[in-house]
Amino acid sequence: MKRLPAWRRGLGHAALGLAALIGAGTLAAGTAAADTTLNALFMKQAAYSEDDVRSMTKDFEAANPGIKVNLEFVPYEALHDKIVAAAGAGAQGYDVVLFDTIWPAEFAKNGFLQDVTGRISADDTAKVFDGAWSTVTYEDKRYGMPWILDTKYLFYNKDMLKKAGIAAPPKTWAELTEQAKIIKDKGIVKFPIVWSWAQAEAIICDYGTLVDAYKGEFYQDGKPIFDKGGSMDAVNYMEQSLKDGLSNPNSREYLEEDVRKIFSNGDAAFALNWTYMYNLANDPKESKVAGQVDLVPAPGVAGKTEASAINGSMGLGITANSTHADDAWKYIAFITSQPVQNKYAKLSLPIWKSSYDDPAVAKGQESLIAAAKVSIGLMFPRPTTPSYTELSNILQKNLQQILLGQVTPEQGMQTANTAAERLH
Amino acid sequence: MGLSSRERQAWALLLPLLVIIATVTGYPLINTFRLSFTDASLTGRNVAQHWVGFENYAYVFTDPDFGDAFRRTLYFTFVSVGAEILLGVLVALLLNREFRGRTAVRALLVLPWALPTIVNAMMWRLIYNPEFGSLNALLLQLGLIDSYQSWLGTPGTAMNMVILADVWKNYPLVAIIVLAALQTIPRELYEAASIDGAGPWLKFWKVTFPAILGPLSVALVLRMIEAFKVFDIIYLMTRGGPADSTKSVSFFVYQESFAYLRAGSGASYAVTVTLTSAVMIAAYIMLLRRQSSTA
Predict the structure, then answer these.
(1) CB nearest to A85's CB, from B43, B242, B258
(2) Strand A314-318 relative to strand A145-148, pairing
(3) In 3-state terms, what secondary structure has residue A55?
(4) What residues of chain B, 22 to 41, have a C-beta less than 8 Å from chain A?
(5) Using the beta-carbon criterion (under 8 Å), do B42 and A88 form an inter-chain contact?
(6) Is domain A37-150+312-375 in CATH 3.40.190.10, yes or no?
(7) Nearest CA to A143 among B44, B46, B263, B47?
(8) How confident is the model over A173-189, as pLDDT tens digits?
(9) What's the CATH number where B265 sits?
């Protein structure tokens, strides 16, 4: 055998070392292979915090030795695209994904999620709110278990209202305008109302809440009617509140977290936001106005509605590519179970009806529970269509153009409607 | 005609690289090109793809939104690269002077460029914040504005603000390239120019500029190719908003493919963007050739 030059021998040793390393690696993987590792995708903001999800998962792992759950958190704005892109990754992708109420149509059509209708008992069906079920259902099939039961509430700063001599929070959107005007005129805050009107799904949730209040519809006989009736009333309300200087003009670049910061900093008297803001805005570590924050259901419109609400719920599903469907369901069933949801009811409320009469759940957040009891029954769905993402983008762009004063509300919504008609 | 043994060796050594390029760049490129003539969609189901000929392209070239995005991207490219070149040259000239602490300043110069885009974007978002941002505080105290502005929330300013953040990150690259070129200019040339009675302005145009022109044009074309593909900083700072005013062509491609799941149509947008970049790459290669023939 020819003697190898020194560097080649070195290489040989390195290769041996590498082989040993790989060997050790496979060995480690070998022992773990008896167990199952689930990959789960969650979001970073709103509803349950990362810490909540981590500790629920830890409890699950303790109760189910042999199942390990890898958690990944992404911003809501990246969640849809992440699920879609991972669908191409085959079994290497996620097992459990958090999905929004607006996606089941699209996901069902494209086969991204497993049909789990058969896994849910009739007993559970009766115990969970209908609004929660509509979140995971498309054409009578269920694609997951509802988990985050959420809608937008009207938050208000009690001290500011008192200072302005206002006895009770608004019951209608017109009253909100009146009260905001008083607060502005008295110089208590410059812009009394803050919203999440950035070019994102957030603006659709605020707009949808108003459409619900005005008893509007998005479609009539299968045709879009964004440029008519309640939809136009909603858009006009949004535009007028900016014109009057009652809504913070920066709302047009804000997401929900920005709204929380402005409101918690004492720079707004009113804000429309999800459940999670209630306990965070009342937490002295997170907020300068802790103790001054209360909430009511989003207002209604005199003669039309008592209150309004948008369905902003989310569910947990099993991806079509998952090879651990049974274990994935075990995990989903655990973290959506009533005891777990009751335990973590500070940032997101349970899907289970009886939880709302449980004093342990209501403790310290009685007004949230009271508002939730009204709002959850009203939750208005955003359009159900497989091309929702595109429809939403059309609406976002045109709503922004209206609110930035580039086009009139009529022009903007007609453009949106024409574009929506072209979607199948 | 047989290859010499040296040539054979060269090809043998290049082979692994060529194989890697063919798999990670070549295959996706060819596949994207093929997809762009189909109605493929991103789906978990087994749906047959249909050949649609130039239908996707016909749509691309008549899509007013894509036209807007294309113009916007060109604006981003020219303004940001122009500013980077100007700033880069000025800073390089300054750092080529002899002064105390020069080495430290030169090291600092690299910092913005070394920061990951996500850090840079988040940092500038904080600076631009409409309620707590330092830019608003600075301009207000200087008396240049009379109230806080929503820099990223106003269509007229959003794109320029993203450009400023991009210039801050990328001008050091130009500065470093130019600085390296400046250091190769023999001192005698300046002395000779002084003897001939040339002032600073003339010295710059007759001595400095010709010496840095080659490296500068390479930096220019490289930055233009990069800038035209801009995606990350926009995704992080504005997500294309407000009212689409910062949506670039790459953002368009991304949205068409991953948000709307139209892989075929998305591919045709991608090919259009790639071909535009290819024109710039051709210019780059021509520049390199000219330089190696003059050198």
Answers:
(1) B258
(2) antiparallel
(3) helix
(4) 41
(5) yes
(6) yes
(7) B44
(8) 999 999 999 999 999 99
(9) 1.10.3720.10
